[in-house]
Amino acid sequence: MPIITVEIFPGRTIDQKRRIAKRLTDSMVEICGAKPQAVHVLFTEVDTTDWAVAGELCSDRASEPTKSG
Fold this sequence. Notes:
Elements: E1 3-8, H1 14-32, E2 40-45, E3 52-53, E4 56-57, H2 58-62
Parallel strand pairs: 1-2
Antiparallel strand pairs: 3-4
């Protein structure tokens, strides 16, 4: 039973999650030969204050002014 975990920031719509789940399931069926009924997709929404990249919280990075070229 394949389990696919998608960790994302909050804000995606239900329709977007449906589309992501469908495409991930279709890919597992096509590439791995899994049965669609066996593929589980779990969405975990992680707040930007609970996620860091390059040692900085994403909430801090989002508030920085855009740096040009």
